[in-house]
Amino acid sequence: MSSQLKTYLTPEEYLAIERKAEDRSEYFNGEMFAMSGASRRHNLIVTNIVREISQQIKGKPCEVYSNDMRVKIPATGLYTYPDVVVVCDEPKFEDEYIDTLLNPVVIIEVLSDSTEKYDRGQKFAHYRGIESLAEYMLVAQDNFKVEQFTKRSDKQWLMTEKGSLEDEIKLISIECVLQLREVYDKVTLP
Question: What is the three-class DSSP state of 12?
């Protein structure tokens, strides 16, 4: 019987490796986890969402990022890459590299077979530890379905689900409205 020793990394070691890497990895509890590529549908949905939010936040003190903006959850130590992240007012970053955001207001994940369980469960549990986070949205890529979780003043999360191209999602924290028809523009379902 052979046993392999796991190498545990500090957050600083992870960031040093990640900043030089061609492929992205998440980090949690001393371990790095490689991220897989995204499908055509996934990329179209992310692009559509970023386009719609970008147009609506022009002139507002908010910024929208897709895929490559790393977010750290200080409460749990997870480093991750949401599909779409929005920050308002003054963005706060972990260090002088300005590549690890600490205070997102909105996080959006596009679901896939390999990530859906994690995005709904453990990852959302991590995200709930972000004090600034007001809204979390899960977007299906195999049917027209969007689930929005909004943090109430009592820190409870309220879920709203939409499933028709005629529906819209109101992102109250950033004063944006996403039409599902626009979210799924040019997306062909399986």
Answer: helix
- CATH superfamily for 38-183 is tt1808, chain A (3.90.1570.10)
The answer to whether the Cα torsion of 12, 76, 140, 58 is positive or negative is negative
In the prediction, which pLDDT does 2 show? 47
Backbone angles phi, psi at 55, to 5 degrees: -65, -35
Structural contact between residues 21 and 13, judged by C-beta atoms closer than 8 angstroms: no
Q: Are 86 and 52 in contact (CB under 8 A)?
A: no
Q: Coil, strand, or helix at residue 54?
A: helix
Task: Dump pLDDT digits (tens) for 129-140.
Answer: 999 999 999 999
Amino acid at 65: Y
pTM: 0.94
Q: CA 168 to CA 116: how far, in whole Å?
A: 22
Q: Tokens for 176?
A: 């944006």
